[in-house]
Amino acid sequence: MTTATKSDKDRVVIFDTTLRDGEQCPGATMTHEEKLEVASLLDEMGVDIIEAGFPIASEGDFAAVHEIAKRSKNAVICGLSRAAPKDIDRCAEAIKPAARRRIHTFLSTSPVHMKYKLQKEPHEVYEMVIAQVTRARNHTDDVEWSSEDGTRTEHDFLCRCVEAAIKAGATTINIPDTVGYTTPEEYAALFRMVRERVPNADKAVFSVHCHDDLGMAVANSLAGVMGGARQIECTINGIGERAGNAALEEVVMAIQTRNDVLPYWTNIDATMLTRASKLVSAATSFPVQYNKAIVGRNAFAHESGIHQDGMLKNTQTYEIMTPESVGVKQTSLVMGKHSGRHAFVHKLEELGYKLGANQLEDAFTRFKALADRKKHIYDEDIEALVDEEIATAQD
Ligand code: KIV
Ligand code: ZN
Questions:
Q1: 310 pLDDT exceeds 70?
Q2: How far is C-alpha 306 from the chain's CA centre?
Q3: 67 Cβ closer than 6 Å to some ligand 1 atom
Q4: Least C-beta-crowded within 10 Å: which of 84, 140, 195, 371?
């Protein structure tokens, strides 16, 4: 989309929670220094809101949020808090140094969470919503309220809580799919329903927050936006509780690549996505799966002969975005048993070889035989094979 066509109503705010929901998953703990490095990159790449941590959770979390708040240049710095007054006050203290700061306070609203987790009646939860948002508003005028387990919440009660939260001063309303249970159509309809039924809905920005238990976090997030939400909560590489959260790089590139059907825009510099993915992977020691969309090492790699042939003729045959657009230097044509003659000749040219027709045919046959035996074919393998072919021909 060109700058001229960007309008505020189509702007989707990117709320990154890599340092909070992402770090919360088993094994993803980051050191203080690593968190500062990740936050700095998120800030540089255009993330609008950085959820830097859960300050009441530990001294370490508090210190990281506090330091990130001191250093942030552009992004709003956000901390998470439960409904308890001491949580909210601790969160406010942690984010204080930030030029722009947000308190994100949440409370469960689904029957199963209210009954077993909170052990409270709905009318008590309703009063707590008002109290938590009011307390947070005493610290900052940027307050987000989340109805935890929102997608399994009874609709009338959800609408009453959302209305009360907005009345108490919440400026962002997040309806999370905490357990990754919803589907795209259902989630879009939920946002339409809430925005239609809540009388003061236009006073708040609605937000999606999706978990990936059924592998639908990104699709659900985008559907929520189509239902009227304008903030996406996501993490780099999709790390997060259990199966993870919606992946930032995927929602950003879906909007950028399919702008015809997703007519929105974000402030993210997509050319920094690969760098961010590598940094988070190194900081958490979570490897990125090879076939991960956008940032997996195979995302711009082709081995099959048919695909390589197509790519050599026109890259749009098998790529819907350029590698450069997400910060990858170039497409790679991986040589293997599926590669065809066209890609083999291209590789030889790259390596500086020009063979006659017969030599080429022999070398290609040898290459195919080698590829059947060997999983990874390196440039050195091809060089050795061709050198041998040339030497044999000279004998
Ligand atoms: O998944 C969830 O419901 C959360 C909330 C704290 C927003 O992470
Ligand atoms: Zn979550």
A1: yes
A2: 31
A3: no
A4: 84
Summarize pLDDT for 143-171 with one digit per residue, the tens: 999 999 999 999 999 999 999 999 999 99
Residues forming beta bridges with residue 265, ordered by sequence position: 11
Which protein residue's CA is at the shortest distance from atom 1 of ligand 1? 178
Residue 50 sits at the vertex; the CA angle it makes with 48 and 55, to the nearest 5 degrees, is 150
pLDDT in tens, 325-342: 999 999 999 999 999 999
Retrieve residue 357's tokens. 């027709």
Determine if residue 155 is labeled as part of a ligand binding site.
no
Does ligand 1 come within 6 angstroms of the Cβ of 309?
no
Q: Do the annotations mark residue 245 as ligand-binding?
A: yes
Query: Cα torsion for 296, 297, 299, 303, to the nearest 10°?
Result: -150
**pLDDT for the residue numbered 4:** 54
Say if residue 395's pLDDT is above 90: no
How many A from CA of 241 to the centre of ligand 2?
A: 7
What does pLDDT average to over the chain? 96
Give tens-digit pLDDT for 230-271: 999 999 999 999 999 999 999 999 999 999 999 999 999 999
Cα of 148 vs centre of ligand 1, distance in Å, is 6
* 32 annotated to a ligand binding site: no
Residue type, position 155, single letter: H
Q: What is the pLDDT of residue 394?
A: 78
Identify the CA nearest to 2 among candidates 263, 273, 231: 263
